[in-house]
Design goal:
Elements (H helix, E strand, L loop, with lengths): L1 E3 L8 E4 L2 E11 L7 E8 L5 E7 L3 E4 L2 E12 L2 E6 L5 E4 L15 E7 L4 E6 L3 E9 L13 E6 L4 E5 L7 E5 L4 E5 L3
Antiparallel strand pairs: 1-6, 2-3, 2-6, 3-4, 4-5, 7-8, 7-10, 8-9, 10-11, 12-13, 12-15, 13-14, 15-16
Length: about 190
């Protein structure tokens, strides 16, 4: 399916230079002189790299039909990460390169997998915006430092992920993490 630059929107998957890209952001520009154009940031779905590209106004762009499907993370092995479709119970294995922040996934977690609808090829795996994980190890907070939330210390989570947490977090605490920027969000009440 082809569209023009007037139909561009964030999250759209397009075929560009014989590769698949997702539109991260775009801006329509109408300079005082010369034709209008659209400035875009595109994320390569195979490599994960982001590039910038400018399309002249009115140019035709090939859109790829992508379906979001719920899958449950089962386990990791030498072939990659194994998931089960929550509706059909079909199992697939996905390479770690297609999963951003894979170390924040725990077994049983439900994720969204974007699948190329025509070829049934998995493109990307998206974690939910927030996950809750248990702190396995961390340093003890120093007296007087525990009330401040801007003092951070290293910690290891149940999935093996390492991240900085506030000083008042202890071992066995469950914390909520923002998967979009890998930051501590809050401590979960038990």
């Amino acid at each position: 399916m082809a569209i023009t630059t007037a139909d561009i929107k964030n999250g759209l998957t397009i075929e560009f230079n014989e590769q698949l890209f997702q539109i991260v952001s775009f801006q329509h520009v109408k300079p005082g002189k010369g034709p209008a154009f659209v400035r875009t940031k595109l994320k390569n779905l195979k490599t994960g790299r982001t590039i910038e590209n400018t399309f002249n106004s009115g140019v035709r762009i090939d859109v790829v039909r992508v379906e979001r499907r719920p899958y449950q993370f089962l386990y990791k092995d030498e072939a990659g990460f194994n998931f089960m479709n929550s509706e059909s119970f079909e199992q697939i294995s996905i390479d770690a390169n297609l999963i951003e922040n894979s170390d924040l996934m725990k077994e049983g977690q439900v994720v969204e997998i974007n699948v190329h609808a025509d070829t049934e090829t998995p493109l990307t795996v998206e974690l939910p915006p927030f996950v809750e994980l248990k702190v396995i190890s961390t340093m003890a907070g120093e007296k007087g430092n525990t009330a401040s939330s801007n003092a951070l210390k290293p910690s290891t989570l149940e999935t093996g992920a390492e991240m900085m947490v506030p000083m008042f977090i202890n071992e066995d605490d469950i914390i909520k993490i923002d998967t979009r920027d890998r930051s501590y969000y809050e401590r979960v009440k038990k």
